[in-house]
Amino acid sequence: MPKKVGKQQSNILSWIVLLIWLFAALIAGVMLVAGLAGFVVPPNLAPDVVPQVPTVPALPTAAAVQQPENQPTADSPVPDPPATPFLPAQGTGGGAQGVFVEPTFTPLVPVTPTPTFFLTPPPAWDGPIVIGTSTGGRPIEVYRFGNGPIKRLIIAGIHGGYEWNTIALADELIAYLQDNPDFVPHTVTLYILRAMNPDGYARSRGVRGRANDNNVDLNRNFPVNWQADWPRAGCWSYLPITGGSGPGSEQETQVVMDFILQTRPTAIISYHSAALGIFPGGEPWEADSIRLAETLAAASTYAFPPVDTGCFFTGSLPDFAVANGIAAVDLELHTHEFTDFEENLGVLKAFLEWRR
Ligand SMILES: [Zn+2]
Question: Does residue 236 contact residue 218 with C-beta atoms inside 8 Å?
């Protein structure tokens, strides 16, 4: 009986122990669930953190990108506040914070300097540029058109008022190019020296206007093939005139030589009048200057080869140019009266497109 009772009691005790274990297991299960819940809580906290991060940078980021466009020099106050919290995040290399940092700074670098370099492009033309003065103290003026690497030079009025219409043509070309700067290709810089002998231009529109104030023929004063005097047969001989006291003796000659050697044009037209055609530089004529003369003749009705009067040319501007590696021609207008403007627009176009 006691054993029986003892068996029953031990069974009861076994059940009690089992219940205790089950209860303990239940508690352990509850604690386990509670422990797992501990990992779920941080994500509940995370939304409290995350909204703070994007809301703060989102507004200043957009503002920082836009403001430098209107205020290129005032960009420093904008990125400073977001820069402090974002820089450590950039070092970790992860998370949403790094995404905000890059667009904040990247656009600021190229946007600011780009307009600074292109605010002051060279003007399409410039002038009058005074490059020196004549014997009589008058300015010698040059106009520049275009900014290309290929340099071209037109000189008018080397024989003053006697050939006044070459100066009138230069002034018409200058006015036309000021209104039509695209006429000059972007690869070319064109210089127009409108009056090399302003003293003769001021003195007379007839034969008395040919020489400078020292009675020198400037197209015989250049220091190449220079002579003080020359046979007059076949040459201009209306008045006594000289080649100067020495090669390159005249102020106008020196100013033009300096300008040519400084700007280094690859081709030169020196305008004269009247009627004889186009004379290449060089003694004998230089090959590239002949090609230039042929090109200009093909674009006009000016004659090449020119009329041969038997004159012997000394100390001329084209000879000086050729001696310095520059193709050059003397081009005579048809008369002493007209500028032949339309025809010389064609000459100018061919001159700008001609290549050595
Ligand atoms: Zn002349």
Answer: no
